[in-house]
Amino acid sequence: MDGHGHSAEAMFYSLMNFLKEMDLDIKDCRGQSYDNASNMSGKYNGLQAKIKEISPHAEYVPCFAHSLNLVGQSAVECCKEAVNFFCFIENVYLCIFLSINTSAGFIEEKVVRVWRELTCC
What we know:
The protein folds into two domains: 1-78, no CATH class; 79-121. It has six helices and two strands; from the N terminus they run H-E-H-H-E-H-H-H. It is mostly helical. The longest helix has 25 residues, at 80-104. The chain has a two-stranded parallel sheet with strand order 1-2. The protein starts with 7 loop residues before the first helix and ends with a helix.
């Protein structure tokens, strides 16, 4: 979807354009799930409310995976050893990812820069 901003109105506009391009009817929507940001989940002015106005059967459920991720991040940030551990794990993943993609010839300069920045942990 093309980005026209982060407001509920902008997200709604982008979503409706995307659905139109895909020839999908929003009235067929039966569920929606987003993070807990007010622009998405707001009961009166969030994206979920705007969709619910058009498609009353599109029930909103907060994304529990996103919420759990935020809890995990907060818990880890208070412990230097945990931060270092997860930084190490991320570097191992990136090293494997980069070596696989390098041999296949698909590596991009941007990914290399991110990897170099992360190795400073």
